[in-house]
Design goal:
By secondary structure, the protein is an alpha/beta fold. It folds into two domains: 58 residues, 2,3-Dihydroxybiphenyl 1,2-Dioxygenase, domain 1; 60 residues, 2,3-Dihydroxybiphenyl 1,2-Dioxygenase, domain 1 (Roll). The protein has three helices and eight strands, in the order βαβββαβαβββ. The strands form two sheets. It has a four-stranded mixed sheet. A four-stranded mixed sheet has the order 5-8-7-6, with helices on one face. It is globular. The two termini are 28 Å apart.
């Protein structure tokens, strides 16, 4: 058995698709009836589809998980983030940890926590 994908629920499919393309270079692999599979295995599913399938409420900014990315030039990434998405809500501003690794945490447009660090 292997983990195939990670699915996140989004309110505005096109806005989310553009966000993950602009910042992380993720491209659409498959667009299928309220579900979009992006490169690297990230799946976007429209909120209406998820609610219909699950029959439960959706809680954004629950901070129970995060999407983790690595980027060697984190300063340039944060500049791009601030320029293209100035409304971004930060959890942790760009900082350097005691062992030298840089990190930033923020929410995507739907309240999913994202962490980006420099590689070790």
């Amino acid at each position: 058995m292997k983990l195939k994908n990670v699915l996140i629920v989004v309110k505005d499919m096109e806005k989310s698709r553009q966000f993950y393309h602009d910042l992380f270079g993720l491209d659409t692999v498959l667009d299928n009836d309220g579900n979009i599979i992006l490169t690297e295995g990230l799946v976007l599913q429209e909120e209406t589809v998820w609610k219909q399938l699950l029959e439960k409420e959706i809680f954004t900014e629950n901070n129970a998980f995060e999407l983790y990315f690595e980027e060697n030039d984190l300063e340039a990434f944060v500049q791009k983030l601030e320029k293209q998405y100035p409304e971004t809500r930060y959890v942790t501003q760009l900082m350097t940890l005691s062992h030298g690794q840089k990190i930033v945490r923020f929410y995507d447009p739907d309240g999913h926590l994202i962490e980006v660090r420099t590689s070790m």
